[in-house]
Fold this protein.
Amino acid sequence: MPKYANKKAVVIGGTIGMGLATVKILLDGGAEVLLTGRNEKNLAAVKSELENNAQVVQSDIASVADIGRLSEIVKEKFGEFDFLFVNAGVSSLEPFEKVTEKEYDRIFNINTKGAFFTVQRLAPLIRNGGSIVFTTVTNGTGNPNLSVYSGSKAALRVFAQVFAAELVSRGIRVNAVAPGFIETPTMGVAGLSEEEMAALMSLGDEITPMKRHGTVEEVARAVLFLAFDATFTTGAELLVDGGLAQIGDSL
């Protein structure tokens, strides 16, 4: 029997990168998957690539109204489900003194407020004994020019712990995966030029102890370990960063 047969999963931010890699492994393992995204081009591309093997829903995690509609769609399509992956996020490189209120609100609305209300609205549909995984970020050796992004992701780490405490009575485990430098289409920062992308790639290879970027598949396997295999683990954060946070300063 396929590993994820009879499992139902909802992946928030599943059209590209780590989210899409997770979707593909779930589908290959026999799961039913509903994924969300906001960008129409990415949504169209993933529909074509997956050939209608997954439910693809346009939904903006920054909109509480959209989250409410999403909960109704999930209830209609799945009823109850087993696993929620909250992966949508956005960042921008900017010194803290140049951050505007508008940009601050944009990042927190997507990364933090949206994640909170997604869990609030979808948790009632998760089967007892199910699981939730957030995408946070490795603390590494400090993140200059990413103050707002880092703060928004730190909040998710606390959410994972508090939600784990509040949902443990239902047997629902809540954990987080914390990627380091991962090779994705945007490298986690929207709007980078080719030169900036190359510089970020070079930096990641240099400061990561394993001297390379991780792959989206490596992150996806960690996500699914937390989702289905780590049955005695809740409130934890799993680092997938090539040693950056734990041994980076010692090398």
